[in-house]
What we know:
The complex is a heterodimer. By secondary structure, chain A is α/β, with parallel strands linked by helices. In chain A, about 35% of the residues lie in helices and about 25% in strands.
Amino acid sequence: MNQPVITVQDLNLWYGQSQALRSVSIQIPDRAITALIGPSGCGKSTFLKTLDRMNDLIPSVRVEGQVLYQGQDIFQTDVNQLRREIGMVFQKPNPFPMSIYDNVAYGPRTHGTRDKKTLDQLVERALRDAAIWDEVKDRLKKNALSLSGGQQQRLCIARALAVQPRVLLMDEPTSALDPISTSRIEDLVLSLKEHYAIVMVTHNMQQALRVSDQTAFFLLGELIEFGETGTLFSQPRDKRTEDYITGRFG
Amino acid sequence: MKHTAKRSEQVIHALFFLLGMVAVACVILITVYLVFSGLPAILQIGPGPFLTGKVWASTAAQPQYGILPFILSSLAGTAGAILLGLPVGFLTALYLAKLAPPRIRALLGQAVSVLAGIPSVVYGLVGMMVLVPAVRSLFGVPDGAGLLSAIIVLAIMILPSIVKMTVTALNAVPQEYEAASLALGATAEETWVRVTIPAARSGIAAAVVLGVGRAIGESMAVMMVAGNAPNLPDSLFQSVRFLTTAVASEMSYSSGLQQQALFSIALVLFLFIMLLNALLNFILKGENKL
């Protein structure tokens, strides 16, 4: 396993009175894909959103425990800086209602890049890295909402890449897409792990098996099992993991 | 049995259709009436002298019917009200939609609703008793009743529609847009300015148009604070008459060509409102297109 980029220690999280995460400890390796699986409501999405502190937006959230990104406590660092380093791709493609170019340039512009040439380069590279450049290079000024769902999702990945993050969080990035778009995104994710640490929530166990290096299985807010994906699926240590991956519940 | 059920359905359909047509019929009736009663005086005076004449002297021995002072006063008053009311209303709306804690939001929302419900004569009264003397002593002018007072009263009167429309527009922006922006490391303020407000822009534009409509159509409150002399609006303290107040202030004692000319003024006002409606439709339609 590569060096961990994020280290989580005894993370507990409450929404109001109800506890959504129970004493989760895990190390997210760099330049690898970590899949988070588990039934609906098991806390995997909540856990993902804790890593870039998007949970801060929900008023009743209370967090205990430690999350270290590159050795720094994420709850002590500047949240905007943290989110530059830890990008996020959402379940439903959510491009801004502006041009394709402006979508990708949004992050760099927000962080102060004004030079047209630099922006052009950043946009092109992000679109290339997200494997969508060839499809959109002739219509960068077109509204992003005119793209298909799969293209929109790759555009959102490009938008996240354009701020040059270190970690990419993906919250069921293919659940709203057709099989062909899904397999393109999976290929893309596989190619991205050379440069990024990727944490991906998925409902689809085949997907976890296809793309991820490590898999974490969540149940009722607890991290039940975490290990190398092949091993976890072929020889689960925990009975509950076995029941879940063999389709006995969930 | 089946037959009668069908029959009663037809009757109900016809009834609803008729009721629905009442509003349409009113619009058509008013339009036709205004055109027929407003055109003769315009033709008699001549469209040029009527629309661009600078002197309105309807009761002079040699009457003159130039309504340019009214048109310009209405435009100046409305523009001023927007200039003053839009920033206040917009920022209030932004605060209400994004920042205000729930309790203050409820209180402020209530206040804005009440503001919308206050009759215009009350605005006029307060303007007359408080604002006009304040303008007089603050700026040291002989009479506080004039363009500035009208602008201030109108700015307050258009606040509710601007605030409410803008809040609705801002709240209608999908949460996913803001989440995407925040996840890229933008601050909340950057997100509002660069994502939320642009995404709500057609709703905000519609709010402005509604405000313009309200301001240009208001008569009672304006009449009570604007001074009502048919002057060109060449200064903020000039006593002015709007299109609306021009009709209202002379209607009770007018006759002959003077009365017909008042109808013509109403027709001009009506055209302005129609134009605004068309603009509003255009803006709202544009929103649905990509």
